[in-house]
Specification:
Blueprint (H helix, E strand, L loop, with lengths): L10 H55 L19 E2 L8 E2 L6 E6 L6 E4 L9 E5 L18 E6 L3 E11 L3 E4 L12 E15 L4 E8 L4 E17 L6 E3 L5 E4 L24 E3 L5 E3 L9 E3 L9 E2 L6 E4 L5 E10 L26 E8 L8
Parallel strand pairs: 2-18
Antiparallel strand pairs: 1-3, 3-9, 4-5, 4-9, 5-8, 6-7, 6-9, 7-8, 9-10, 10-11, 11-16, 11-19, 12-13, 14-15, 17-18, 19-20
Length: 380
C-alpha cells in the first residue's frame, strides 16, 4: 500500500526531464566538438608548417650557392659568364633552354670539385672526352676526382656550354660519356663537375593537389613535399644592363653578369661580327654595348617571356643555346603554398566549406620569400 502523500513521477514529468537532459548534453557536445577539432587541427597545421619551411630552406640553400665554386676561369665560366639559375630542367645533348612554369634549376660546383681542360679537339658525336691531367691532381688519384654518374659542364668564354653525364673514367684521364656530344669542342675547353638541382611541380592524383619534386642533374625526379597548392617562381634581374669592365689601361677585362665579347677583330661564332657575341655588340669606335633591354637601376622582376626570346647564346643555331637575359638573373622570388595532410581539415578548393560537419578548417600555409644567387660573390 502507497503511503499517504507519496506519488511517483508522471509520464509528462519524465518526458520533460529527458528533454532537459538532452538539451544539457547537446550543449556539452557543442562545447566539446571544437576542442576535439582543435586537438586534430593543431598537429596538422604544425606538420604543414614544418614541411613547407623545410622545403623552402633546401631551395634557398641551392639558390644561394648558385654559380659559386668554379675554380678554373671563373670570370668566363658558370656563375658569371653563364647562367646560374634557369627556368628549365637540366638536359644533356642538344638543348634549347626554354622557360617552363613552376620550374627552377640552380647549379654550382661543390668545393674541390673536379675540373680540367680537354687535351684534344672533340668532334660532334664524340663520347670520350680526354683531359689533360691537372697539376693539382695527385698521382695516387687516377680519376682526379671525376666519377661515373657525375654531371659535368663543358664551357668556353663568350657563352658556350653543354652538359654531359660521365659513364666511366679510364686512364690516363678519359671521361666516357653516357650520351654523345651535340657539337664539336676545341682543345683547351674547360670541363668541370657540377651539382645541379631542379625543382618542379607534378600533379598528384592521389590527393588532387601536387608534389614538388627535385632532380639531381638530368636524373629522375624524387618527391620533396606533398600537398602543394601553389609553387611559383618570379625571376629577378640585376639592376642596369651588363657591361664590359675595363682595366686601368683601358683593356677589356671581363663582363658583369654576361659572357664577355672576344677582342676586337676576333670572330668566335659566324653568327656574330668580329669582336662581338650574343651579349654585346660594338659601336663604330669599338665600344661594347649590351644587346638586350637596358633595365632599370635596381633589381626588378623579369617576365618568363623575356627568357626565351633571344638574343641566343652562343648563337641562334647552336645545339645548346640559351637566352642572354638568363645571365642577368640575380635572384628569385618563390611563393609556396602547402595544405595540411588531413583532407577533412582542408577547405574544398573554391568553396571554402568543410568536408566533414564540425571539422575545423586549417588554411593553407603560404610562404613568400626572395633570395639572391650566390654567383655575384665570386668563385672559390
Amino acid at each position: 500500500m502507497t503511503p499517504r502523500g507519496a506519488r511517483g513521477a508522471t509520464l509528462i514529468e519524465l518526458l520533460v526531464a529527458l528533454t532537459l537532459l538532452g538539451l544539457a548534453m547537446s550543449v556539452v557536445a557543442a562545447l566539446t566538438i571544437p576542442v576535439l577539432a582543435a586537438f586534430e587541427a593543431e598537429p596538422a597545421a604544425a606538420d604543414a608548417q614544418q614541411r613547407a619551411r623545410s622545403t623552402l630552406q633546401v631551395l634557398i640553400d641551392d639558390v644561394q650557392r648558385a654559380g659559386t665554386g668554379f675554380l678554373h676561369d671563373t670570370e668566363a665560366g658558370p656563375g658569371l659568364g653563364l647562367p646560374s639559375l634557369w627556368p628549365d630542367a637540366v638536359r644533356t645533348g642538344a638543348w634549347a633552354v626554354s622557360p617552363r612554369a613552376n620550374t627552377l634549376t640552380a647549379w654550382h660546383a661543390p668545393r674541390g670539385a673536379a675540373h680540367g681542360l680537354t687535351r684534344v679537339a672533340l668532334a660532334a658525336g664524340a663520347t670520350v672526352v680526354p683531359l689533360a691531367r691537372p697539376a693539382f691532381c695527385s698521382a695516387v688519384i687516377p680519376t682526379c676526382g671525376f666519377a661515373a654518374g657525375d654531371e659535368v659542364v663543358l664551357f668556353l668564354p663568350h657563352g658556350r656550354f653543354a652538359v654531359a653525364t660521365i659513364a666511366q673514367v679510364e686512364a690516363p684521364l678519359d671521361l666516357h660519356l653516357a650520351a654523345p656530344l651535340a657539337d664539336a669542342w676545341p682543345a683547351g675547353s674547360v670541363v668541370a663537375a657540377v651539382t645541379a638541382h631542379t625543382y618542379e611541380v607534378r600533379p598528384d592524383p592521389a590527393t588532387g593537389l601536387a608534389q614538388i619534386v627535385r632532380r639531381l642533374g638530368s636524373g629522375p625526379p624524387t618527391p620533396v613535399v606533398d600537398f602543394v597548392r601553389r609553387f611559383e617562381v618570379q625571376w629577378i634581374a640585376a639592376g642596369g644592363a651588363p657591361s664590359v669592365h675595363l682595366a686601368p689601361d683601358g683593356s677589356e677585362e671581363h663582363a658583369t653578369g654576361a659572357p664577355a665579347p672576344p677582342p676586337a677583330g676576333v670572330v668566335v661564332d659566324a653568327a656574330w661580327p668580329a669582336g662581338e657575341n650574343c651579349a654585346f655588340f660594338r659601336d663604330a669606335a669599338g665600344g661594347t654595348h649590351w644587346r638586350g633591354a637596358a633595365g632599370g637601376g635596381a633589381p626588378a622582376p623579369l617576365g618568363a617571356a623575356a627568357l626565351g626570346d633571344g638574343p641566343w647564346c652562343p648563337s641562334p643555331a647552336a645545339p645548346v643555346r640559351w637566352d642572354a637575359d638568363l645571365a642577368r638573373i640575380d635572384g628569385v622570388r618563390v611563393v609556396l603554398s602547402i595544405a595540411v595532410a588531413v583532407d577533412t581539415l582542408r577547405p574544398a578548393a573554391g568553396l571554402g566549406l568543410a568536408r566533414r560537419p564540425g571539422a575545423r578548417l586549417v588554411p593553407d600555409l603560404v610562404l613568400d620569400t626572395t633570395v639572391r644567387a650566390g654567383r655575384r660573390s665570386g668563385g672559390l
